[in-house]
Amino acid sequence: MDIQKKLVMTFKSSDDKKVSITVDNPREDLEENEIKEAMDTIIEKDIFSPNGGSLVSIVCAKVVQTDTTDYDLVL
């Protein structure tokens, strides 16, 4: 069993589309204010330009945890 965590930060772009940025294995002690500050900085510095647009506002952020079970099937 393999458990993975990802921080998914979702923004609205200048062309009114939702864009997500995913960070693998976020810190366990990550706080909401740190995520908001990071997202504000991403918008302020205009570092990403999906489809040639800019990220203009924060939509949401969440930590997603997936639990994967592999099966060794002999066919």
Beta-strand residue fraction: 35-45%
Structural class: alpha+beta
Which descriptor suits the 3D outline?
flat
Radius of gyration: 16 Å
Helix content: 10-25%
Q: Gap between N and C termini, in Å?
A: 21 Å
* Strand order in the largest sheet: 2-1-3
Poorly predicted ranges: none
Question: How would you summarize this macromolecular structure in one to three sentences?
Answer:
The chain is of the alpha+beta class and 75 residues long. The protein has one helix at residues 32-45, and strands at residues 2-13, 18-24, 55-68.
Care to describe what's here?
The chain is α+β, with helices and mostly antiparallel strands. The chain has one helix and three strands, in the order E-E-H-E. It has one helix spanning 32-45, and strands spanning 2-13, 18-24, 55-68. Strand 1 and strand 2 form a beta hairpin. The chain is flat, with a radius of gyration of 16 Å. The model has no long low-confidence stretch (mean pLDDT 93).
Main attributes of the structure:
3-stranded antiparallel beta sheet; 75 residues
Fold blueprint:
Layout: E1 2-13, E2 18-24, H1 32-45, E3 55-68
Antiparallel strand pairs: 1-2, 1-3
